[in-house]
Amino acid sequence: MEPLLSTLHIVSGVFIVGPMAILPMTAMRSMRAGEAGQVASLAKSTNIFTLLSVLVVFFGFGALGFRDNASFASTWVWLSIVLYAAALAISLFLVIPAMKSASELLAEQSASGTRVAGTKVAGYSRVAMGSGIASLLLVAVVVLMVVKPV
Questions:
Q1: 135 pLDDT exceeds 90?
Q2: Which keywords are on file for this protein (predicted)?
Q3: N or C terminus: which one in the chain shows less Cβ crowding within 10 Å?
């Protein structure tokens, strides 16, 4: 059962956490281009993938339950959980709201005929900073999973 859960953990990590980390960066390009609809769609998608990322944790806990050489007391396990929780919080409470606000602002600007170009779009720096930090935290989780320090 452990190989199945480990496989599900890794595959869901790639196909769920990957988009969770990459979609905000795609949204930044759409923000620069003034594409309100695309930013709104990417905010929804990022929210869905961020919430689905809990499945990765669930499969990881399942795999961990079958391992003899690791437990929740292992440094790499609890530290991975803390780093993931921080990335989840940043994504849910900083990045996604900033993307939603930016899409609304871009839609208003489009309707009124005014346009702010490039990185001057409100929320752009919050999306850039938040998604960058969340991505670095997720990379740190992967490093911990590979290195597995005692």
A1: yes
A2: Membrane, Transmembrane, Transmembrane helix
A3: C
Higher pLDDT, 71 or 46: 46
CA dihedral 65, 19, 134, 72 (to 10 degrees): 0
**In which residue are the tokens 């839609």 written?**
107
Tell me the C-alpha distance between 44 and 37, whole Å: 11
Q: Give the CA angle between residues 97, 35, 21 to the nearest 5°.
A: 50
Kindly indicate the confidence band of residue 119, based on its pLDDT and cuts at 50, 70 and 90: low
Please give the structure tokens belonging to residue 119: 């990185």
Give the C-alpha separation, 74 to 103, whole Å.
42
Query: Is residue 116 predicted with pLDDT exceeding 70?
Result: no
